[in-house]
Amino acid sequence: MLTDTTRHRDFPALDGITYLNTAAESIPPRCVGEAIQTYWQDKLLGMKGRDGHFAQVEACREISARMVGLQTSEVSFCSCSSEAYNLLASALNLNTRDEVVVTDLDFPAGATPWLRAAEAPKVRLWQAHDGALCIEHLVPLLNEHTKLVQVSLVSFYNGHRIAWRELRETVRRHAPNALISVDITQALGRVRLDCDDADILISSTHKWTLGIHGGCIIGIPQRHAARLTTHAGGWFHLQNAFERDRFERAEPKPGAASFSVGMPNFVALYALNASLRYLEGIGVENIARHADPLVCEVDAGLRGLGLKPMCERDPRNPSGILAFQHPQTALLHKALEAERVHIMHHAGRIRIAVHGYNTQADIANLLRVLAAGLRTL
Question: Both 46 and 15 in a single domain?
Answer without folding.
Answer: no
